[in-house]
Amino acid sequence: MTNLTCNFDTIPTRAGRGTLKYDLRGDLFGRSDVIPMWVADMDFECAPQIKKAIVERADHNLYGYDIGASLCGGSVGNWLRRRNGWEVECEWLRFTTGVLAGLGFAIRAFTEAGDAVVIQTPVYPPFRTLVEANGRRVVTNPLHHTADGFAMDFGGLEKIFSAGARAIILCNPHNPVGRVFTRDELTRLGELCVEYDVTILSDEIHSDLIFAPHRHIHIASLDERFAARCVTFVAPSKSFNIAGLATSVAIISDEKMREKWDAEYARSHIIEGTLFGHVALRAAYDHCEGWLEELLAYLKGNVEYVHTFLCENIPSVKAPCQQGTYLVWLDFRELLDSLPPARLVGELVEPSAAASGGGGPTNSASSGHRRLMSWLADEAGLGLNSGADFGREGVGFARLNVATNRATLEQAMSQLYDAVGRLC
What we know:
Elements (H helix, E strand, L loop, with lengths): L19 H4 L1 H5 L5 E2 L11 H11 L9 H4 L1 H12 L8 E4 L2 H12 L5 E4 L6 H8 L3 E4 L3 E3 L2 E3 L2 H9 L4 E5 L11 H13 L3 E5 L20 H4 L2 E5 L2 H4 L7 E4 L3 H14 L6 H13 L1 H25 L13 E5 L31 H16 L3 E2 L1 E2 L10 E5 L4 H18 L1
Parallel strand pairs: 1-12, 3-4, 3-7, 7-8, 8-9
Antiparallel strand pairs: 2-10, 5-6, 9-10, 11-14, 13-14
Helix pairs in contact: 3-13, 5-13, 6-7, 6-12, 8-9, 14-16
C-alpha cells in the first residue's frame, strides 16, 4: 500500500448526505449503526480528473440538451482496445441511463412475451425482476459449486437451450461469486448459443475490476458468430465509483440487432445517459487509467486480507477465490445450526420465493437464513446483502462489499470474529 499515490485509506463521511448505502441502514437492517457493506458502490472518492471535468462543465451554467453520447465513442473504443484488445466501431455503440435500463431494452427488443430467458444463479437479483416485469419467463441454470469454486453447468444449458430458451443473461465477471470466465468457457457458451439460436445479453459492468493473473475477455470479441447475437453492456460506473451519474454503453455489432434496439428505443424515447455522466465517462476513460490500476492494487489487498483473516481466524466462514469485482461471496452454512433465533426481518433478510428461484427455500433453510441475517446485523454489526436474494443457491450466504478503507474492513472482520466467538 505504501507505493500507492492515491489515498484510499481516507474516506469521506457519507452518512446524512442522502446516500443509499448509509442512510437506509435503519430501514434495511433494523439498526443504523451497522457497518454498511452491501450495495455495490465504493466508499472512495472518484478520481480527481473526473471531478475536475464535472466542475468545469458545471461552471458553464447551461445544462440544456446535449450531444454528449455522440462525443463518447472514441473514449469507449480506445478504452476497450487498451484494456482488453477489443476493436469496436463507434456505430456499434448505444448509450443508456444504466446497464439495467439497457437490459430492459434488450429483453423487449430481442425476445417476445412468454419467451424463456436463462439466468445462472446465484446471480444479481434484478436480472430476475427485469425478465419477469417484461412478461418473459425466467429459467435458472445454477452454477456448479465445487471445492475449486464456481463454474457454468453446460449440460444444463444445453438442455434448456434445446427446450427453446431464447436468450441468456451472462454476468461476467459474475456477481456475486467473483468468477472471471475463461476463453474456453466463453467459447463453449458461444457455440451453444449459435447452435440453438440463443441471444446473449452480456452484463460486463465489472469488466475493469479484474485481479491478475486473470483477464477479462468479451464474449463478443471471440467470434463474429457470437457477436452477431450479442449485446455487451459496459460502464465506468463501478470502476470509477460514478454510478449516480447514470450512463452506460451497449455494444451491438450486428446491424439488424441495432435496428431492433433502435426501434425499441423509439418506443420508449429514454435519454442516452446524462450530461454529467457523459462528461465523467470521457474523463474516466481518457485520463484515469492510472487511478484505476492503483484502485485495483488496493482492492486486491482488501480481498487478500479477508481471505487470510477467514482462513486463520474463522475457518467456518468460507469465500471462493476472488478473480474479479469487489464483492466477496461469504459461505456461512457451517454456522447456521449454531445461530440464535432471528430478531430481525427486513428487506435484505427475508428470502422470498421470487428471489429464490421458484418455490423458495425450504422452511428450515428459510429459518436458518433469517437467523443468519439477523445475527450478522445484531451480533456482528454488519450490513451485508442477503444471499437468498440471489437465488435459492444463496441460502446460507451473504455478499460482502470490500470497497472501503482497510481500517473499516479490519473493524468489520474483528466484529465478525467476536460474534462467531460468542456462539461457542
